[in-house]
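G., the chain you wanted modeled:
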Amino acid sequence: MKLDPIFEVKNNSLFLIADGSSVDPSSFSFVEFKQSDIEFDEEVYNEETLAAWREDFLAKDEKGEFVVLAPHASMDLSNALNFERFCNTCNHTARRVKDCKSVAGFLFDETFLSENAESRIAEFVELLAKKHAQYVYFVQKSVAEKLNIGDLLQKSAIVIY
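Predicted structure as tokens:
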């Protein structure tokens, strides 16, 4: 099931496609989780938590509320296999909430962006876009400034808030 996009990113800001109005991402709920909360072992996931999130997110759909999934790696992402597992965990999470219009997208944290940010963003977005092209991606302004990656985020159409 593919959902139509609700948002678009222009100049690192978020807008509703329906009317072009600006959206403040700080009004969204950010669902923070550690990779290890969802991935018990390679390709073994916490389906109970994911099912509970789905129910919660479907309820938010009806209220017109939005969430951003904010994963934190539990492994060293400089290791290519660990990075792949992290991406797979996020992709599996997206699969379990695929019918929830309330899920706006994902937040990239400092750990994710601290090394090879351009290739990590590209790989992550490419993986998720296969089934979740409606998602937008977010970075906190303080992280973008600390890592000095504003230009990269501009060309990657990432929301900086």
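The mean pLDDT is 97.

Shout if anything looks off.
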